[in-house]
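A reminder from the course coordinator: this example appears on the midterm review sheet, so study it carefully.

Given structure:
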């Protein structure tokens, strides 16, 4: 069976990661441009043929919404240019917090995004650490849901921390934290929080023993850093030796950088799914090799199970 040739393109917002992915893959980014109009309208275009090719388009859909629309337009352009298949590589899947109707008369934004990607002509979606696993079910095309544990676990192990405990900053992330806890054979702590409104934590309670422990909080994303800094403070108040955070997506909006700088956190480790400014406390580990390996395997119908630690 003849395999389609692969071409990898990048949206403008995620070029910093795309360049590392293609370097790991052993190729170069495909040539594309974006024509900008004075009123803010824009039109992406491919500057080389994609006819009959397996096209991978890399773009995280973070703020502003133009990043999402650019991805949709690039998918549409590839479809109209007779690409064989089109895979949207979305390291950070925006709007993922809108995965259900948690109150009356609201949009389920994650489902809307899935519909838009399908309408644009996507054949497959590759993403990482969705805020809610069930978002995979919003798609009628294959979804390869990768996990940052393959880069985080080796980092945690390299620290050689004694009396290690894994913690979740909220009950919603307890499943993720439990997976780390089981794999690393450590204790598990859960922080129960209530929110006054989005991005504002009301009260928080630490459930579990952290006294004289080195604690690693596990989360899928850090937005304003309100939850993790409060959790770290509560954990230290209960006698922990140190608190670190591993989180896949460093959104870091609003006062996030300032809160982390002033916090009791020893270290915050995130991936490069989003553009992040490294500081004394914030460290970035790359997911480029992981995505490059998966992009190699998919057109050849190879299993990607080996890319998962758990």
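Designed residues:
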């Amino acid at each position: 069976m003849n395999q389609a040739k692969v071409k990898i393109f990048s949206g403008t917002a995620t070029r910093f990661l795309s360049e590392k992915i293609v370097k790991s893959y052993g190729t170069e980014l495909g040539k594309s441009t974006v024509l900008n109009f004075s009123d803010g309208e824009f039109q992406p275009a491919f500057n080389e043929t994609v006819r009959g090719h397996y096209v991978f388009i890399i773009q995280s859909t973070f703020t502003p919404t133009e990043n999402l629309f650019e991805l949709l337009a690039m998918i549409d352009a590839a479809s109209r240019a007779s690409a064989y298949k089109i895979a949207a590589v979305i390291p950070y899947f925006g709007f993922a917090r809108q995965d259900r109707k948690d109150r009356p008369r609201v949009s389920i934004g994650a489902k809307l995004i899935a519909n838009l990607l399908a309408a644009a002509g996507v054949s497959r979606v590759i993403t990482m650490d969705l805020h809610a696993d069930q978002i995979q079910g919003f798609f009628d095309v294959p979804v390869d849901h990768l996990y940052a544990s393959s880069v985080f676990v080796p980092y945690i192990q390299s620290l050689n921390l004694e009396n290690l405990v894994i913690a979740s900053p909220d009950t919603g992330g307890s499943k993720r934290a439990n997976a780390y806890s089981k794999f690393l054979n450590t204790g598990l702590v859960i922080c129960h929080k209530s929110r006054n409104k989005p991005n504002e934590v009301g009260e928080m309670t630490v459930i579990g023993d952290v006294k004289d422990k080195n604690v690693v909080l596990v989360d899928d994303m850090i937005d304003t850093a309100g939850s993790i800094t409060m959790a770290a403070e509560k954990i230290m108040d209960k006698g922990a030796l140190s608190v670190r955070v591993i989180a896949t997506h460093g959104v870091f909006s609003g006062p996030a950088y300032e809160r982390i700088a002033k916090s009791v956190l020893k270290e915050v480790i995130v991936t490069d799914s989003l553009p992040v400014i490294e500081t004394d406390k914030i460290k970035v580990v790359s997911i480029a090799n992981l995505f490059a390996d998966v992009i190699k395997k998919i057109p050849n119908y190879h299993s990607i199970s080996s890319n998962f630690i758990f």
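The chain has a mean pLDDT of 95. DSSP finds eight helices and 14 strands in the chain.
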